[in-house]
Amino acid sequence: MGPDTGLLTIGAFARASRLSAKTLRRYDEHGLLCPVHVDPFTGYRYYAPAQLEHARLVAWLRRIGMPLARIRSVCELYATDADAAARDIRAYWARVEAETAARRDLAAFLVDRLSTETAGKDDSMSQLNAPLGLRCAARSDRGLVRDTNQDSVYAGPRLLAVADGYGGGGARAGSAAIDALRPLESVSADSGELLNLLADAVRMANHAVQDLPDSGTTLTALLWTGSRLGLVHIGDTRAYLLRGGQLFRITHDHTVVQSMIDDGSLTEDEARSHPQRALLLKALDGAPSPAAPDLHLHDAQAGDRYVLCTDGLFTVVPEADLRRVSATVADPDEAARALIALANEAGGPDNTGCVVADVVEL
User: Fold this and answer.
1) In this structure, are residues 278 and 218 in contact, taking their beta carbons and an 8 Å threshold?
2) Rounded to two decimals, what is the model's pTM?
3) What is the spatial distance between Cα 345 and Cα 299, in angstroms, rounded to a whole number?
4) Are the C-beta atoms of 285 and 205 separated by less than 8 Å?
5) How much is the pLDDT for 29?
6) What is the pLDDT of residues 6-29, one digit of tens each?
7) What is the dihedral of CA 213, 214, 220, 225, to 10 degrees?
8) Is the pLDDT of residue 272 over 60?
9) Cα–Cα–Cα angle for 342, 233, 274, nearest 5°?
């Protein structure tokens, strides 16, 4: 026991908390778990039994890989509001999962590439020669309320894109962002280089809107290699994949409302009518240090259908209806028309942009 009744020596506290004395000293140095008493002559640390729960929380957070600085913030929240601490942990883990998904896609590509090279084959050529192609269409509509249309769409042989501009120069911003990606149509690259090309193109897109004050745009785009699609996404435009009759959203909104859903403070139903549902956390706004976009690789299969759209569609059209039309209207152009018609039938409160693309055997 320590100098005061009930205090534990660092050794006893280490055994009780199942942390090493070295770890406890490090946590003390970082201000995460400070002893209640330090002997002024020996420097020996003493802890209160009530600190054991705090010690276990820190240890658990370290096991999930949370940085020490973030742990300090969670512990401060936990001291006054356990629910807030739980929401912060949930938000942290949502970001970890998103980052892990991107690394998983790249790792899968590297495994495939190295395995192919070991077999004496050229993966990049096999991907370019894969007997798959895209059949696609793009449509945009002003809607029934807005005076102008700030949504931009594009569907080419290899590039699919939607952008939703905002501000006085929103229409120009959306068009400029897509124009910055169009040169990728003629660039040959394997899957490993694909994400680098998209990242570079998005930086150029951000540069293209810097002369449009108080304006910017969201952007969601897919670039086709022949058997894989590279996805770049920033903002709240979306991409969906219809596969085997099931509709999957493959983008994550960069909005205040989505962050509240992630941390558990808002439900999906509540988000639909939230007054801040259009408030963006990320966009292309010409800033000198632009926000990082999401980048992913997707393996394509014959029969897949990709639907890219602006929030003018998904905020008023239920996902069940989006899936129904996507699954039953065979022609991409007719499907895009039908989806926009649904948005207008729901009041058409916003511009609507939509790209529909089918992966087909050549």
Assistant:
1) no
2) 0.69
3) 35
4) no
5) 83
6) 898 898 988 888 888 888 888 888
7) 10
8) yes
9) 55
